[in-house]
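Methods — Computational structure assignment.
A single polypeptide chain was analysed. Its primary sequence is given first, followed by the predicted tertiary structure written as structure tokens.
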Amino acid sequence: MRGARILLVDDEENFRRSLAIMLHQAGYEVDGLADGQEALRCLAGEIYDFVITDLRMPGIDGMALLEEVKRIHPESLVVMMSAYGSSDLAVEAVKRGATDYIAKPFSSDELLLLLRKAEERERLRRENVLLRREVDRRHGSDSLIAESPAMREVLSMAGKVADHRTTVLVTGESGCGKEMVARAIHQMSLRREGPFVPLNCGAIPENLLESELFGYVRGAFTDAGRNKRGLFEESDGGTIFLDEIGDLQPSLQVKLLRVLQEGEVRRLGDTRTIPVDVRTIAATSKNLDDEMREGRFREDLFYRLNVVRIEIPPLRERREDIAPLAGHFLRYHAERLGRSVASIAPEAMSALVEAPWPGNVRELENAIERAVVLAEGGRVEAALLPIAPGASRTETTPSELSIKRATARIEAELIRQALARTRGNRTQASRLLEISHRALLYKLKRYGLD
């Protein structure tokens, strides 16, 4: 909580002022008020990371204020102060939702240590909430398996960009593992201790997506009964992953561009901006070059996102990954479902490797999960797989009929071979390819090649 906001409530003016000065010097943003009634009026329109309140005050006392704060802003941390300290009071305050209790008089070091410990506990709590959400959703089946040269190249690129704050654009067909690559970048980065917050931009209506991304203040719209942090604030110190960025509406593209440029967000209905330290990774299954030409995607946002592009090949182009992926999904779903299915029959594995997989890794996982459920013996047989008889890599899927995509794949592969043959000398490679050096540089950037 860098620069956390504190609401300080105490009816002793000199004490309140001196404490506010000390907290301000320690890097906190502090508002000081004299009683609980003033505090409630302030909390109706503001949100604070901490509320530090005296226990005994005229009118609304500290305990009553504590209950109201936890009702209005349950995410705010409340610290109780009192000159009438006793263990009973401390226990009662914590029971009612206080983060901690400190007896007057106290030193500045005592209070600062208490606040820093509370900040760390809250950071861990939020991170654990996000982790539990992901564990419940997938329980580890997102392991990034890279046996093929193409995926090893993807992982190599991910490792190179991991420790830099620069934005990354991950492209590829639906189901090919774009979120897995984004998670790998986060886990290899210096931000690994911070949160990883994913959002599918195409899964939420436009009117809800804005408040989800940027948050809102109380009264911003009809149902806004309290202040709410957006996902950019929740991602502070970590990574936000914006999947299907190509589905983002133009009005939100402008606001996203501002966040990327300025490093700050403004909640709906608010007049102030909030600085955020967030690394953004975006992904899309759409061709953003085409979207720009059609006027559906802003050119300035594209170039802001496309600093580094990582293109994930479809599963049919990296068949070396199919067997290890199938084995991983078999172990995961057998354990999850409590099934004693331990292996895949050779003819079944052959069918898996030869299948076209238009749905990519997601389709493969679904096929394995289905087979684990239906298996009657200890292994998966070919008959249990939802693959049409005779289906093989020679069959053409709808996406493979695209001349534009096929040309791009051929170009990228020829460039890889030319660079390998010339040991990375781009001038010599451009001569082999019979294109200009400038054209080669453009294509290297376009295909995310090193």
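Note: The CA atoms of residues 417 and 429 lie 9 Å apart.
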